[in-house]
Amino acid sequence: MSGQVFPAVVAILFGAVVGLILFVPVVAVSYRRRGRLSIGRVGFWAASLVYFLAIWSYTLLPLPASDDYRCSGAVLSLAPTIDDVVGAFADGSPLTDVRLLQVVFNVLFFVPLGFLIRVVARRGILVGVLAGFVVSLLIETTQLTGVWGIFPCGYRLFDVGDLLTNTLGALVGSVLGLLVPARLRGVEKAADAGAPRPVTRGRRLLGAACDLLGTAVLAGAAGTTVQLFLQYALRRSDLVADGVIADIASGWVPIAVWLAVVLATGRTVGDLCVELRYEGGRFPEPLARALRFVGGIGGYLVLGELGAVGGVLVGLFVLTWIVLLFATPAGRGLPGVLSGRRLADARSVDSDDH
Predict the structure, then answer these.
(1) What's the CA gap between 347 and 354, in Å, rounded?
(2) 0.85 cut: is pTM over it?
(3) What φ, ψ does residue 72 adopt, rounded to 5°?
(4) What does the alpha-carbon distance between residue 83 and residue 114 come to, in Å, rounded to a whole number?
(5) Is 102 exposed, middle or buried (0-12, 13-18, 19+ CB in 10 A)?
(6) pLDDT digit string (tens) for 62-72?
(7) pLDDT in tens, 97-124
(8) Rounded percentage of the chain residues whose pLDDT exceeds 90
(9) 340 in helix, strand or coil?
């Protein structure tokens, strides 16, 4: 894989992983700041995440395979960059000349940074340019110092030409940010963020996705924490290799945490994220909350811990959950059927909180 493609692939893959980890808090913040989650906003933040990871990956990757490499120096003159541009036009094929394309890439690479500073942070062009210069200087210095002394010497070239072109890219991005209407800039809370909205099946599915992703992230964190504790605190490599304790933790810690949240609030983490609640019904509140847990993520997780038999039951559970999602009013689904409750927007004046 070429030196240019590899960092891009790493940025996309890491962006996907980090994006999944951050998905739940992004949904929760979006519903509280904007009242909803739009596909466009998800795409914007996903692209921003991949971009900032790309800055990291293009700065450091590929790493030297060993300490046996030729140290890179520093280009402290703009003359080579100017010569590359002039030479590309002088040769009569600027659109295909690698020298010019490299300069153009360096400019384009920092256009998103200037744009984000202008649109998201709502800062002026001068701040955008300064941010581009500082970030570029940090990158070049990281390369010059061998990642601040981790490597014996710099394995990437320090080039003031890159510093200039990166800063120019930030300037272009800041200017392009002027095209975005002022009302769409910044991350201020929308005036109607607290207004109730229709309860849709898509919103219900989004809440369920938050529960699935949230429990998956917690399961991974719990299992990893247990393994690290066994390895470094108890010095039990045998238990680490066996993995039984870590499996138990990764399976039951999310169940315990989600059950506690439901019993305390009446809602799962996913419900809290998308501002939904189950209300009404004939059962006492503690029982209704427990049944809401069983009919949703709780039942799914518990059945998954029953081994081979649980795998079949999980399949039937998911099928029933999906069928009832579309067969019941407002998509209240299996949790609503078991608990005898209706699904409502948590911000509605008719909700039980009011």
Answers:
(1) 9
(2) no
(3) -90, 150
(4) 26
(5) middle
(6) 777 666 667 77
(7) 788 888 888 899 999 999 999 888 888 8
(8) 47
(9) coil
